[in-house]
Write a structure and sequence with these properties.
This protein is mainly β. The protein has one domain: YmcC-like fold, CATH 2.40.360. 0% of the residues lie in helices and 53% in strands. It has no helices and 13 strands. It has strands at residues 20-21, 50-55, 66-75, 81-83, 88-92, 95-97, 102-105, 113-119, 122-137, 140-155, 158-167, 171-181, 184-197. A hairpin with a 2-residue loop joins β9 and β10. The relative contact order is 0.25.
């Protein structure tokens, strides 16, 4: 299995069947919930919080998903929350960030973008790809979700794409990565939230 990228440290550092439905509501259905304009609301950072993931990546044998749990263990002197997967995240202004990149930034407006320079040869380009989405994963149905897409150029005709869907009060609930070569997209990682426990302080 291809290693999971570390763009989201607290959730396998970037570790999705139900679709992310962004369509219109049916007759008589309530309007889509509005996304809170607060990045911290979409990634609860506290010692003791825990997320259990169901990995359904295409490289795994059919019908044999893997499970993985990530738990926040401590907080360091710089304010980063450290997890069991060696990740580190903190809230800084309108963004949630790791030590190299801003992974989620408010306000949540479709098309809004930002960039993070992670090395002298690599820049990650982020955009809000969807807001107010309703998403179903094994952990449940979630409203007012925000979907973030990150792109990293790998070569002249190749790039890596990461999509993470966040639910308010829960954190990331779906993570997908794709390799795009010559315009053709190939799925790499697909993981969904199976359960979570938010008991931290």
């Amino acid at each position: 299995m291809r290693p999971v990228p570390r763009s989201v440290p607290l959730l396998l550092a970037a570790l999705a069947a139900a679709g992310c439905a962004g369509g219109s509501a049916g007759p008589g259905a309530p309007p889509p919930a509005r996304a809170p304009d607060d990045a911290a609301a979409y990634f609860p950072l506290a010692v003791g919080n825990e997320w259990r993931w169901l990995d359904r990546s295409p490289s795994l044998p059919a019908g044999e998903p893997r499970r993985r749990t990530v738990r926040i263990l401590s907080r360091d002197a710089e304010g980063y929350y450290l997890d069991s997967d060696r990740g580190a995240l903190k809230v800084s202004g309108p963004c949630v960030q790791d030590r190299l990149r801003r992974i989620l930034c408010a306000p949540f407006v479709a098309g809004r973008s930002w960039a993070s320079v992670v090395s002298v040869t690599s820049t990650e380009h982020y955009e809000i790809a969807g807001v107010g989405e309703r998403v179903r994963v094994p952990a449940g149905d979630f409203d007012a979700c925000v979907r973030v897409r990150a792109r990293t150029r790998a070569a002249a005709d190749a790039e890596s794409v990461l999509e993470i869907t966040y639910a308010p009060g829960v954190g990331p609930i779906r993570i997908e990565t794709f390799a795009v070569v010559g315009g053709a997209s190939s799925p790499q990682v697909r993981a969904e939230l199976e359960s979570y426990r938010l008991e931290g302080r």
